Amino acid sequence: MDFETRAIHEGQEPDPTTGALTTPIYLTSTYVQDAVGEHKGYDYSRVANPTRTALQQCLASLESAEHGVAFASGLGAVTTIMHLLNPGDRMVLIADVYGGVYRMTTQVYEPKGYVFDYLPAAEFDELGSHLDERTRIVWIETPSNPMLNIVDIEKAAEAAHAAGAILVVDNTFATPYLQRPLELGADIVVHSTTKYLGGHSDVVGGFAATNDPTIAERLLFLQKSLGAVPGPLDCWLVLRGIKTLAVRMRQHCHNAHAISGFLERHPRVEQVLYPGLPRHPGHAIAAKQMRDFGGMISFLAESEEEAAAFVASTKIFKLAESLGGVESLIELPARMTHASTAEGPFAAPRNLIRLSVGLESAEDLLVDLEAAFAKVAAGTHSVRTV
User: Fold this and answer.
1) Do 211 and 304 lie in a common domain?
2) Of the residues 170, 187, 292, 368, which is catalytic?
3) Is residue 48 in some structural domain?
4) Is 195 a catalytic residue?
């Protein structure tokens, strides 16, 4: 079956008891057993829940995975994967990794003896030379957050495997509709389902998928043992969002193409970071491994002051963290989502603006951005604290 069909039906057969078309929300903590140790696959909802099972099966299918594991948040998924490491093991990450991951690696795991090194995206062509016998995991985002850098997944997988490491790809920005890292050699794909998969800014969740049965067994054990599991309502909300993922991503991409071109031509923009633009250094690789280029755009204003003024001036683009919802959002990563990297060597530029392009009319979004530029130029922007 094609992607769109699986998104609606995989793991979501009508309820056998009532015929309910939509997967029920199983709000139960425990399950009656026929006899001691005899049950229908469920005994306690931290271990398994039918609504969660439906989500895991559906999303694993969309990622071309045999195994899927859902979590209470994207960082819950990251934390669980971190438990594949032991103190003294080394992980190599893309330098402009999500700020929450950087905060976790530097402030939670480094003090416990774990080793992390951060590699700029431009150096991933020589990834093999940066790996050693202690390296257990290579962690990439592509496109990355917030710099929209692109890494060749297939080449990264080859280098990681040659060094005896596994490759983890955060696929949150691309979603499985646009990119499927496991098909390109990755060992684990991870998501914040809070973002495009949920798609409506009303749920927090995470997910990891793999085709390796040993990794899957370990992740499922850790899911049960660490307890960072999503509730059934959260699973149901993500399942609902996934049903429209394909059509939403097509519109996100359509609007982002229009806006990136507008920004590239605008005299008050220093640089546009969007892999759909031919001058983007990762454009050719993105075109090879992605169906389209996504709905995230970052750009550099002329100064930090102008960037702050600009985000204070939009009307349709709302100033908020997160991304991937139906509504358009705007933020300053250096002072918001990536504030934890501010004192590090790979801090986000302070004049960087990140857009999560929503599903509104592209024309309305362009008018909103043009009006904000005009307010900044005229010095009539309002004051908005960031």
Assistant:
1) no
2) 170
3) yes
4) yes
The residue among 98, 147, 121, 122 whose CA lies nearest residue 271 is: 147
Give dist(CA 161, CA 136) in Å, integer.
Answer: 10
DSSP letter at 23?
P
pLDDT in tens, 240-295: 999 999 999 999 999 999 999 999 999 999 999 999 999 999 999 999 999 999 99
- Give the list of residues 6+ apart from residue 7 with CB closer than 8 angstroms, or none: 58, 62, 242, 243, 245, 246
Query: Collapsing DSSP states into helix, strand and coil, what is residue 235?
Result: helix
Q: Which one, of 112, 89, 116, 114, lies nearest residue 102 by Cα?
A: 116
| 98 catalytic residue (yes or no) | yes
Is 234 catalytic? The answer is: no
| Known active-site residue 274 | no
Alpha-carbon dihedral sign for residues 32, 35, 41, 45: positive
Record the pTM. 0.95
Tokens of 323: 């991304």
Annotated catalytic residue, options 90, 136, 180, 195: 195
Cα 381 to Cα 312: distance, rounded to the nearest angstrom: 7
From 26, 98, 102, 114, the catalytic residue: 98
The string of DSSP codes covering 312-325 is TT-SSSEE-S---S
Summarised one tens digit per residue, pLDDT across range 225-244 is: 999 999 999 999 999 999 99
**Residue 386 within any structural domain of the chain:** no
Among 206, 225, 242, give the residue marking a domain's end: 242
Q: Are 84 and 114 in contact (CB under 8 A)?
A: no
Structural contact between residues 160 and 169, judged by C-beta atoms closer than 8 angstroms: no
Query: Does one domain contain both 51 and 158?
Result: yes
Residues 73 and 147 in one domain: yes
